[in-house]
Model the fold of this input.
Amino acid sequence: MMEIKNVEAVLYETRGPIAVLTLNRPEKLNALDYAMNDRLLFLLAQIEADDAVRLVILTGAGRAFSAGGDIPEFTESIRQGTEIAVRDFVRRGQAMTARMEAFCKPVIAAVNGIAFGGGCEITEAVHLAVASENALFAKPEINIGIPPTFGGTQRLPRLAGRKRALQYLLTGDAFSPQRAYEMGVVNKVVPHETLMEEALALADRILQHSPLATARILAAVTRGLNVSIAEGLEIEREQFARMAGTEDVLEGLSAWISRRAPNYCGR
Done:
């Protein structure tokens, strides 16, 4: 059953245990203004606290996923001075992408069209991404004299490698969804008309498993990416220890031994 929560700059609907967030400024190509950014953070906090929601799909209304930051709005912040621009624009955007990257429930981007600037940075930050054949990616910030500010100088090199990332960061050239797949920015490229179907199918596969184990894997991967292998292995041990005494582990083992489907708590 689908339940629509609010009609605002970001739409929120639930499809069973899946929350679907839709960036909803189609007339502005879903440019990320401050209100949209704040609304995303607000909704993620709600979803985190809602045990009935186990996974998030993020997409865009109209022909764009997101064309990036709202240039007229952050231009005004820049005119007010560096301190205000950093506070209102950079920190706000970085907080949003960091929240998605470290979110305790899987976040899948269903990239339906243009994903420039901040839209590309969201795609880089989320856990998984499915792209329409109509999608188009770019890191165009250099064209207006700034570096990416929502994490794009850090995440794209980690995903794609330094030289591949710098090619797009330094030229502002657009790249295709197939190129995004080759660089590890998206997991799959699909026909436009099946985009949501494919994202929901991926979600359903994830939802077959223990929600506790899913959260532990997300935590281990997110925390471990930027530390040494020794520190990463310690994080992995910690996450296993948090799972070992749970009913989900006993149920998973029992189901495997009995050759039956597990019945996890919270599913």
